[in-house]
Amino acid sequence: MADQAQPNYHHAPHRTISSSQIMTILTVFPLGGLLLLLSCITLTGTIIALVVATPLFVIFSPVLVPAVVALALAVTGLLTSGAFGVTALSSLAWLVKYLRRGGRDGGGHAAEMGKRRVRDTAGYGGRRS
Asked: What are the transmembrane regions (predicted)?
């Protein structure tokens, strides 16, 4: 019984974070946080403006034009807030997907092929003249 074999556990290979991944994290996380902050500030400002402006328009203006202006500003503020939020969340989602793939974004191969073609063309032009 003492000679019983220990189970062989397969561990995932240890991956290290490359410098490009670190730069991606240092770039995208602050930008995503900033966009989320802008989204929150815009939403808060829009709500405060609606709370302040709506009673003023009702009391001081029987004309519907200021109400339309207030509504247009409210819609613009809400759409801007949503756009900042969606941009921040999509940036963070891209970062998570990028890191799960191990820092390979698929564009490196095409870039290397382009560099090689430029070198080959330059070398051919140099031999010809």
From this structure: 20-40, 47-65, 71-96
The token pair at 57 is 């328009």
Residue 44 located in a structural domain: yes
The number of distinct structural domains making up the chain is 1
Q: How far is CA 79 from CA 45, 53, 83, in A?
A: 13, 18, 6
Domain enclosing residue 62, as ranges: 24-102
Question: pLDDT per residue over 104-119, tens digit each?
Answer: 665 556 667 777 777 7
Among residues 115, 97, 117, 114, which one has the least CA distance to residue 105? 97
pTM of the shown model: 0.43
| Interacting residues of 31 by C-beta distance below 8 A, sequence separation 6+ | 88, 91
Radius of gyration for the chain, computed over Cα atoms and rounded to the nearest angstrom: 28
Weakest-pLDDT range from 36-40, 77-81, 103-107: 103-107
d(CA 58, CA 102): 57
